[in-house]
Amino acid sequence: MTMIRRTILTPLSFGTGRRQFLGAAGAGMLAASLPGCSTPVGVPPSYENTIGWAQKSITQVMGEQADAAAISVALLKRDSVVWQQAFGMASTMGNQPATTRTRFNIGSVSKVFAGLAGVILQDRQLIDLDAPISRYLPGFKMLSPEYRRITSRHLLSHSSGLPGTNGRNLFSFAPIAGYAADTERELANAHLKHLPGQLAVYCNDGFTMFEQVVLAVTGQAYADFVEQHILKPLKMNDSGFLRAAKPVGEFAYPRYEGKQYPLEFVNAFATGGLSSTPSDMMNLARMFLGGGVFQGTRIVSAAGLAAMGTDQTQNLQINPSPEWRWGLGWDSVRQPGLAHANIFAWEKNGGTAFFSTEFFVLPDAQMGLLLTGNSAYGGKALAIAEGILLRALQEEGTLAALPPTVVTTVPGLATPANAGEVAGIYGNYKAPIQVGLDRDGGLTLNQWNGQEWVPFLKDTPRLQYRNDGWWWTDNGSLPSFRFSEASGTDASGKAIRFRYLIQRVLPGAGLGRITLPIAQQLEPLPALSAAWQARLKSKWSPTNESAEAVSWAVTDDMRVTVGTLAELPGYVLFGGADMGYQLLTPLADDRAGPSVKISVNHGRDLNEINFTTQNGASLLQTGSLLFKQV
Predict the structure, then answer these.
(1) Tens of pLDDT along 86-137?
(2) Which 8-state DSSP code applies to residue 422?
(3) 331, 237, 329: which is closest to 279 by C-alpha?
(4) Which fold has domain 530-629?
């Protein structure tokens, strides 16, 4: 995982930007075992093989990635934690080993608590999940009038249409108060990127705005509400939101490029700010498995838990990858990897600037798992988590055998229909993609790296159409691609149609392929106005990021540029090494906004820029970040 800077060349990169919380999928392998820093607790003989495999997998990835300094895990079966173990060093200061009570920042796994808070508040009749949030937040407003349609359900299921993530002061080395209020203020100067409920694309701002809803209806700050009404009754005594400096010894510390950094603070509490331990998180899993009851105390109604676990994507207008089934707070209420083995699982992934986490609850199998650690191991996290669960299910007899992995044989060649229509420039949240066809009918995919077009798949510039309807390279383990169209309506009710580049990958334990739209074809626009032409090639530097922000410590270049692409000159090309590169549609001579509507992940964190003048100086604004020209 690349810290802060977005990885531009990785085809499937879910957790590599300053504003991102969704981690990357990878594959796990075995290697020689290294000792952990604590011993297994309460291990029944039936899980010994599972634990041995997991120990080898974890210690291998720690050996391969020096920055994976600490990893911790807990496995739950029914009401018992059958294994918990911590590996490595929580801190090099004083040579602090990681223990089972070491706290890790669990990133977007925090969203599960926001979803839980939502259904608890509905149980108590303090909110209606389907009522407009403007009922509770009369001061909330945006430039798009459709903001009045946004509900709490939209916020908690990534379908609100909010821009994505307020990037200012998100991660820091000291607590920075007021992030949620700052987000609400900056949204008043932004448009929706899609209509509420039109599609579901990962959106941190939605959960941050839910903090404001909780404050409005309870009178409690969101962190206080969760700590009092969820963490305390669940006896999650080693969990909480970091709002003050803590002594060395309680927390795992960040590591990046061989250096240990100070304690990481995540100031977006509902979207990613909880720190916890795997054993504490098993109390949450117990509550889910218990139908909302923990140790005789009802935390939430059974109906509330059912709402959290209900597929929220069923009525979306645009949904080109239906295997992504968002819940309320959950990434998936039918986790696609385990679903290939006919195992029903809820799953949430989490990533911060420095940590990566996987959380699973298997309601039918009565099992739970949390795996967390320094983000250098993040590319293997999903494979290890799925591998532990599958082996535990086999060892206890639920599975007769481990399910087979996908065969990666490349299908035979075929002739595509209307292939010429797919050529062009495609946009997304991180870098334009150029789709072309060569003389022999091969498909080429190139991506903009800030200076030039480079192959989207490293060392593989050409794909060929196959008889399964997908474009493949000669290497069956690499992603394959196809094109898909989706229809919808704009804010005025006018019919619209989108063409998407769909990528198919083999994540995790390799049980089955999943698809996701990674870019949307863009139509030519009229030439940029004189005002925009005058700004081309201008560079801008941030002025109002706090000195404590993580970005100052680990980002090489925080400058952004305003430009255009020669191949599609009617759009504004905005971004930089830290923010990716987005093609924006001019809305006026001083404002440009998102050009794409892409579900799942590649339409997240879209920028809207506008220009203002303060004290005679020209400033560029995106979200709540201000930039001065350099």
Answers:
(1) 999 999 887 899 999 999 999 999 999 999 999 999 999 999 999 999 999 9
(2) G
(3) 237
(4) Lipocalin (2.40.128)
Element (H, E) at 85: strand 80-91
User: Which residue, 176, 125, 263, 348, is CA-closest to 553?
Assistant: 263
User: Which residue's structure tokens are 């080429």?
Assistant: 444
Query: Quick one: tokens of 355?
Result: 């940590």
CA separation for the pair 165, 428 (Å, rounded): 15
* Angstrom distance (rounded) from CA 283 to CA 235: 7
Q: Which residues of 562-579 are buried (b: 16+ CB within 10 A; e: fewer)?
A: bbbbeebbbbbbbbbbbb
* Distance of alpha carbon 294 from alpha carbon 495, whole angstroms: 49
Q: Which CATH superfamily is domain 45-272+290-395 in?
A: DD-peptidase/beta-lactamase superfamily (3.40.710.10)
State the pTM of this model: 0.93
Q: Concatenate the DSSP letters of all residues of 520-571 into one string.
A: EE----PPPPHHHHHHTTEEEEESSS-TTBHHHHH-S---EEEEEETTEEEE
Number of helical (H) and strand (E) elements in the chain, helices listed first: 13, 32
**Model pLDDT for residues 550-575, shown as the tens digit of each residue:** 988 887 788 999 999 999 999 999 99
Work out whether strand 480-489 and strand 580-588 pair parallel, antiparallel, or are unpaired: unpaired
**What is the gyration radius of the CA atoms in the chain, in angstroms?**
24
**H-run or E-run covering 56:** helix 48-64
The SS3 assignment for 37 reads coil
Residue type, 266: V
Of 223, 385, 369, 343, the C-alpha closest to 286 is 369
How confident is the model over 450-472, as pLDDT tens digits? 999 999 998 777 899 999 999 99
Distance from C-alpha of 264 to C-alpha of 176, rounded to nearest angstrom? 11
Backbone conformation region of residue 284, classed left if phi is above 0, alpha if psi is from -120 to 50, else beta: alpha
199 neighbors 225 (Cβ within 8 angstroms): no
Q: Which of 172, 169, 174, 178 is nearest to 245 (CA)?
A: 174
Domain-wise residue ranges, the chain = 45-272+290-395, 419-521, 530-629
